[in-house]
């Protein structure tokens, strides 16, 4: 009896920590697979694989969020390095899709619309509009709005987040 109560409490705790999302896991897995197949950067490939494992085993959690924003950082470094070499093996629409998907997946994480990883995902999406797309004034305005929203979240949550945010 005591064991079944303990297990029930553990299930409630894990359900509370995991956010359910209506977005299909197939979309994230497909996106991660695309980048894995189209890069030779082993560190980036390991980050992609880790993201996929976390998503498959745990769903959308803070652990996945942290890994996704790290993976996006590596993606932008890869794109920047490719740009320096005048190579662009990664499709811009696929980059946008991953950045947009990450922001949408992380938005409902607690505290909803105010999670630090969501703020980082918004910042990364803004970086995408400004740096990769960024040919039209509307792209700069979208980037500015995303940067502003990310900054507002960071300012709201700075007392509750760790120093190394």
Tell me the layout of helices and strands.
Layout: H1 2-17, H2 25-37, H3 42-58, H4 62-84, H5 92-106, H6 116-133, H7 137-157
Task: Please outline what is shown here.
With 165 residues, this protein is an all-alpha fold.
Question: What does this protein look like?
Answer:
The chain is mainly alpha-helical. The chain has one domain (25-157). 75% of the residues lie in helices and 0% in strands. The chain has 7 helices and no strands. It starts with a helix and ends in an 8-residue tail after the last helix.
Radius of gyration, in angstroms, nearest whole number: 17 Å
Q: Helix proportion of residues, in percent?
A: over 70%
Number of strands: 0
What number of domains? 1
The parts where pLDDT drops under 50 for at least 5 residues are 1-23
Calculate the terminal CA-CA distance, rounded to whole Å. Answer: 43 Å
**Total helical elements:** 7
Based on secondary structure, the structural category is mainly alpha
Q: Estimate the global geometry from the Cα principal axes.
A: globular
Mean pLDDT, nearest integer?
Answer: 79
Largest sheet: none
Report the order of strands and helices: HHHHHHH
**Into which percentage range does the β-strand content fall?**
under 5%
């Amino acid at each position: 009896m005591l064991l079944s109560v303990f297990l029930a409490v553990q299930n409630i705790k894990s359900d509370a920590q995991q956010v359910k999302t209506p977005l299909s896991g197939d979309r994230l897995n497909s996106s991660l697979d695309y980048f894995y197949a189209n890069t030779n950067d082993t560190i980036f490939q390991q980050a992609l694989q880790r993201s996929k494992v976390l998503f498959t085993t745990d769903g959308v959690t803070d652990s996945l969020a942290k890994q996704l924003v790290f993976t996006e950082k590596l993606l932008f470094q890869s794109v920047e390095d490719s740009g320096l070499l005048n190579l662009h093996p990664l499709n811009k629409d696929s980059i946008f899709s991953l950045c947009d998907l990450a922001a949408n997946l992380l938005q409902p994480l607690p505290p909803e619309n105010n999670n630090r990883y969501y703020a980082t995902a918004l910042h990364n999406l803004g970086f995408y509009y400004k740096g990769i797309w960024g040919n039209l004034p509307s792209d700069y305005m979208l980037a500015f709005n995303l940067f502003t929203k990310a900054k507002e979240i960071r300012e709201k949550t700075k007392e509750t987040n760790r120093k190394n945010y």
